[in-house]
Amino acid sequence: MFSAVTRAPAGRAITARSVRAFVATAQRKTEESQKTVAERARKSRPVSPNLSIYQPQMSWILSSMHRNTGILVAGGAYLFTVGFGLAPVFGVDLSSAAVAGALASLPAPVMVGTKALIASSLSFHCFNGIRHLWWDSGRSVSNKGVFNTGYAVLGATALATSYLTFF
Fold this sequence. Notes:
With about 170 residues, the chain is mostly helical. It contains seven helices and no strands.
């Protein structure tokens, strides 16, 4: 854009008049041409973040899983709270005995799958939250520490999910 100013012949000083002439020329561009240039640039620009060009790494995969499990856990808690609060209005019985009876009537694979989904979300989010608190204290923030704590979170999640699902 400033190439007209920088291409002044050697020995010729760039004066205020030449800069004003350049600015006036730049202002003469129509709004339509600027819009066209912007649209062309936008079409050739990759979507950000362009994950297809990056090799998957444990740090950002676990980070996205942490966000998704947080949404799942919080969303489930909010829905259950609203349902529990509105149950008397609609005449639905959500006492402990009624909920236990409804869960017991589910087929075994559905019940195990539901328990595994809830247990894995809660476990992973809890353990990864502890991992983040560990990082906040300034510990294990090296590449090796990030991988070690990542594998520790995955292992602890697997153990806790197995225990909570089957016992």
